[in-house]
Write the C-alpha cells for this entry.
Amino acid sequence: MYTKALYDHEALALQIIRQKNHAWDLEKGISWSTGVDAKRYLLPIDSEAIAFPGASAEQRLAISQLLGLIVNSTIAELEDIIHKLKHSCWSEILRSYPVGPEVWELGELFFEEEIKHSHAFQRYNLAFCEGTGIDKKDLDLILPKAYGSLFLKAITQNAKFGGHSFWWIVAAVEEVSISLYKNLSPFKTQMDPLYHEVHLRHMEEESRHHNYAFLMLQILKERNHSLSDLFYSKTDLIFGQMFCSSWVLAELNKVFDSKKLKHKHPFFETIASCENLFKKLGPKELASRLFVSAPYISLMINGKNHKKTIKMAEQQNIFSFPFPNPIQVPTQVEVFPAFTQSVQKKTGKG
Amino acid sequence: MVIEHRQAFLRNLNTSWLEGGKKKNPIVLFLHGYPDGPEIWSEQIRHFSTQFHVICPYARGTFASEPGRLLSRFSPDSLCLDLLEILKIADPKGKQKIHVVGHDLGGAVAWRLATYLGPRLSRLVIINSLSIEQMATRFLQRPRQWFHSWYLYPFLIPKIPGKIISRFSKKLIPWAYQFGGLAPENFPKLNFNRPFPSATLRLYQAFAQEAVRSLRKPPKKILAPTLVLWGKQDPFLLPPTLDELESYAQSLTVRILEGSHWLFREQPAATNHLIETFFTQGEADATSSKKSI
C-alpha cells in the first residue's frame, strides 16, 4: 500500500518542506488569550448524550465539556506515549533498515509535532480550568492518564520483545484525530472557539504527517523476516487494539469519581448527577452504545472506524479484533444561557 | 564522447581500463563486480564523462587485465596498488579529487581503496556491496547471510568452478544476471565469442582469506562522505543496517531503494541522479567552505 511512497525520496523531501513551512508554533499559532467560553459546548453530542439518556440541558452541556476534555486528555496521553517510545519503536527500526535520510527527518518532525500536540491539548484543559474556576488537580482525577497504566506497560514490553503494536496504535490515533475534526467542524461557529482552533491546528498537522505511521508499518513489513517477527507482525494489531480499547474504557470509568468532587465545583456536581442516567442502561445496551454509536468513544475504541489501518491490515493478512460495525449517529450543539447564569451565580465568575 | 581502451604494464602485469571525459575534470573511478566487466557501467560512463574524468578498470583476471600466477595479486591491497598506478597515469600530478563508485566485489575494493586515498578521496559511493570486514562480521552476526551467499562456497574451490563457468558461460552468466533480478533488456553487452575468464574467481578466494584476517583488526573509518545505495530485491546480500556500516564511515548516507543487485543498470537515470547530486553536493560544500575561509 505504501511501498512506492516509501522509496519515493523526492515526494518525501517535498513532504518535509511542506510540514516545515506550515508548522504552527504552540505559543503564537493558537489564540490562547481568547480563553475558554464556559457557556459553550466543546463537542457536539447525540440525542442520548453518549450514554446518559434523558439528560437535562445543564447535564448535556457538562457532558459535552467533559467529553471534550476526555478526548483532549486521551489524545494528549497517547501522543505523549508516542514520544516516550521514540528510541525503541522508531530509531532502532530505522537503524536496522535505513531506507533514506528523508524518512529519518520526517520521523524527527513527526515526534516533534506529536509532543507539541500533546502540550496543546494539555494546555487547553488547563485553560478550561482557568476559565471555569476548576482546580486542575481535581479535573485530572477524572481524566485519562497513561503513565503507570497497564496499557503503557504492555506496549513498552511488546516493543522490548520485538513487537510493534506501537505503530498500529499510532496509525489509529492519526485516523481518530482527523475523523474527530470532521465530526466537529460543522459546528465550529457554535462550539467553544478555542477548542475548535486547537483541534483545527491539530488536524492540519495530522493530515500532513498521518502517512508516517503507515510508512513505518511498511518498513516493518519489508524488514521483518524471522519467526518471531512473523509472529509479532500477525498479532501486533490485535494486541494494540485490545489494550488501547481496554485502557480507554477503564479510564472512562473515572468519570464516576466526580461524585467525590461534587462539593468542589458545580461542574463535578452536574457530572455526578448523570450517574443515575447511566445506570438506566443495561450492560449489553451500554456495550453496544460505546462500541457502536457513542460519538468519539466509538471512534476511539472501535477499530472498524480506522479504515486505513484496517485496509493495511487486510493487505498484509494481519489479524484484527472483530469489532461490531459502527453506526454514525447525528450530533448537535445547543446553547444554554440559563445554565450559564446558574454557573455564574454559584462560582461568582462571568 | 570518446571512451578509450587503455592498457599498461603495471606492477608486472598487463592491466586494462576504459577512460573517458576531460582530464582536467575531477576523476570518477567505477569499480565493477562479478561476473561483470567495465561495460556494466555503460550508462554511468555515458552520463558522467561529460563532467568528469571517468576511469573504469578491468578487475584483475577479467578479460583484458592479466590475472598473474599468484593469489596475492587478487588480494584487496594488491588490487588497490594496481588502481593507484592507474590513477598515477590518469593524473600524474596527483592534484585531482577522486570520487570512487564500487559495486559488488568492486565495492569491497572501493572501501579498501578509500583507506589508501585518504584526503584525496572526495566521495565514496557503494552500490549493493559490503567491505570485506563488514562481510566477515555479517557472517558472524547475521546467520541468514550464509544462505544468501550460497554461490560463494563453490567459488572458493580452486580452478574447477572457474573452468565450469568458462565452459558454460553462455547459459550461466545470463542466468546469474536474471537470478540477481536484472531483466534481459538491461543485460550488459555480452561477448561469448571469447572465453569467459575463469581466473576472476580467484578474487573470491583471496577476499575470503582477507576476511578471516580482518576479524582481528579494528575498523578503519573513511573520512570522506559515503553514500550507500542498495537495491532491496538483492538475492545475494541482505540490506545493510547502520550498525554494520557506521563504524566504517564518518559521514554516511544510506538509501535502500526498489531494485535488484544491479540497481544502477535497471534504473540508470535515478541512480545517476542520486550519485550526481551526492558528488555536486560535495563541490557545493567545498566552495562554501572556501568562501567562508
About this structure: The first helix of chain A runs from residue 3 to 7.
